[in-house]
Design goal:
The structure is a single chain. The protein is α/β, with parallel strands linked by helices. The chain is about 45% helix and about 10% strand. It has helices at about 5-30, 60-65, 70-80, 100-125, 150-155, 175-190, 195-205, 255-260, 290-305, 315-325, 330-335, 355-375, 380-390, 395-400, 410-420, 425-435, 440-445, 465-470, 485-490, 490-505, and strands at about 130-135, 155-160, 165, 220, 230-235, 240-245, 265-270, 310-315, 335-340, 450-455, 475-480. The protein starts with a helix and ends in a 16-residue tail after the last helix.
């Protein structure tokens, strides 16, 4: 009747669908799952009120784990699966928000256990013949013959010398459904990691270097506060020395690829932060950034020698390195040839992570109290971490928190294992220390070559944090990669090549004026 109006409605619908498609593509591009960004590098506008995290054509579980499929059958299946990740938005919990992550993943694991236990209880309960709605022992004589009217009126069953009226199950669900559901849910709660791992490896076409972190016997460096730092040395002892400081909730094995890619030319010094890895916590439970900067100074002094060292710090390791540069600025040029700050920030990380306005609003009311709660319930939080690791939710959390989609399952699983193995009490104290951290004045005192490396998809320390660090240090250099917070694993070749070129350009000079830079193998 009104063809123009019909065409207009159809046109609006097509426009709406096109806008949704663009939003979806931009969302996928942000996580590097399948699509790529537009030619100008900008994210398309999304005027329609469609949250890209609600119902996205993510091409199945494989791209959710950042895995490309390689066989036609799986390709057909995963292209037509609809994966709802709106519920996973809450799992993007960063290290400073570890208590919230433990809460949600812990509740998820307990929910699986609880529902699975209920299903098994229903299966057992439905099979019990003792469920009775009427007991007729007082009205029916077992020895007399039951009349036809009584038989027609009620079905009597002999049970333990009584005639009873059995109840019928209120549910029409077959018993095998209850037992199968119970076993499945309990198995997922305790062993969900394994099917996740098998399916990921089956669909994976990644050609990453193998991730088999190993350790060698290190030196125990004792500190006045009771801390014992585990310091390990690898690589070419005649090459320039690089001291690596890892991120929070990790340990020095996170630098596995550095040993593989840089060990033939450089002397690599890896140390565990207090309370993590093989290092012992201080007796006074002091995990302030300034205290750990003093620990880094002790490691540098312990190395000694006539050659300056390079410092590489990731995440909290970068924060420690910045404070070290400010506290020891007078002798910095005497001991340090250059600094690399990798995926780190200059202030309280809640100010520079994804969703900063929300985290800042609830910092004192929710986040800080939750750290003290995790501190008091550390054993329970530790068990919750391990259940989350075993059911696979820790891996998914790590995937969306720290990777972009190009990681191998081994990298994702190992990063999740490191976070699981970190003692929650130590993590909580370190998080509280980070909330009090500010390095802006310290950065202005750094007087050695500085390379700042940021990730375009880093959700814990956004690229703006790297840009601010670069602006505070005169003569510093800014570099970007397409990775997330754990680009040192996912984009290890690019990261290590960038560190190598920086060291080559600023190689330490010995006291006799000679250089020590072995050739590439």
């Amino acid at each position: 009747m009104f063809p123009s109006i019909g065409r207009l409605q159809l046109s609006k619908r097509r426009t709406r669908l096109l806008q949704r498609k663009r939003c979806t593509e931009s969302f996928l591009a942000e996580f590097d799952c399948s699509s790529s960004r537009s030619t100008n590098g900008l994210r398309p506008e999304c005027p329609v009120h469609v949250h890209p995290g609600r119902l996205i054509r993510l091409w199945g579980i494989a791209p959710t784990l950042g895995i490309k499929v390689k066989n036609p059958t799986a390709h057909f299946l995963h292209r037509h699966l609809i994966f709802t990740i709106h519920t996973l938005q809450w799992k993007r919990i960063m290290t400073p928000l570890a208590p919230l992550r433990i809460l949600f993943t812990g509740v998820f694991g307990l929910l699986l256990l609880g529902v699975g236990g209920y299903c098994i209880w229903r299966f057992v309960d439905d099979r019990q013949p003792s469920s009775v709605i009427a007991e007729l022992q007082d009205t029916v004589d077992l020895d007399r013959e039951i009349s036809r009217d009584e038989v027609d009126t009620v079905e009597l069953v002999r049970f333990e010398d009584r005639l009873v009226v059995p109840t019928k199950s209120a549910s029409e669900v077959p018993p095998w459904v209850w037992i199968a559901s119970g076993i499945l849910l309990i198995s997922l709660s305790l062993f969900g990691r394994w099917p996740l791992m098998w399916s990921a490896r089956l669909l994976s076409s990644n050609s990453q270097l193998p991730l088999n972190p190993s350790r060698e016997e290190g030196v125990r460096l004792k500190r006045p506060d009771g801390t014992e730092l585990n310091v390990e040395t690898y690589g070419n002892t005649n090459g320039p020395t690089i001291v690596f400081t890892h991120g929070w909730s990790l340990d020095s094995t996170a630098w596995h690829y550095a040993k593989d890619l840089l060990g033939n030319r450089f002397r690599l010094v890896l140390w565990d932060l207090p309370g993590l890895g093989l290092s012992k916590s201080p007796t006074d439970h002091n995990f302030e950034i300034e205290k750990m900067a003093d620990d880094l100074a002790a490691v540098v002094d312990f190395l000694g020698g006539s050659q300056k060292v390079f410092l590489v710090g990731h995440s909290i390791g970068g924060m420690i390195t910045q404070i070290y540069g400010g506290r020891y600025s007078e002798r910095l040029r005497e001991h340090v040839a250059g600094i690399v700050l990798l995926h780190t920030t200059y202030t309280n990380p809640l100010r520079t992570m994804l969703g900063a306005p929300l985290w800042n609003a609830i910092e004192k009311l929710v986040i800080v109290p939750s750290q003290y709660l995790m501190l008091g319930l550390a054993p329970l939080a530790y068990l919750s971490n391990w259940q989350s690791y075993l059911n696979g939710s820790m891996q998914l959390t790590t995937r969306f928190t720290s990777f972009t989609g190009k990681q191998s399952y081994e990298q994702m699983d190992y990063a999740a294992w490191l976070s699981t193995n970190a003692w929650p009490g130590v993590v909580a104290r370190g998080n509280l220390a980070m909330f009090r951290y500010d390095a802006q004045s310290a950065l202005r005192q750094i007087n050695v070559p500085l390379l700042v490396i940021g990730g375009e998809h880093d959700r814990i320390t956004k690229p703006s944090a790297s840009e601010e660090i670069n602006s505070l240090v005169t003569g510093s250099e800014l570099s970007r990669n397409a990775g997330g917070h754990l680009a040192l694993l996912e984009f290890h070749e690019e990261i290590m090549a960038r560190i190598e070129s920086f060291v080559e350009a600023n190689v330490a000079v010995k006291l006799d004026g000679s250089l020590s830079l072995p050739r590439r193998a």
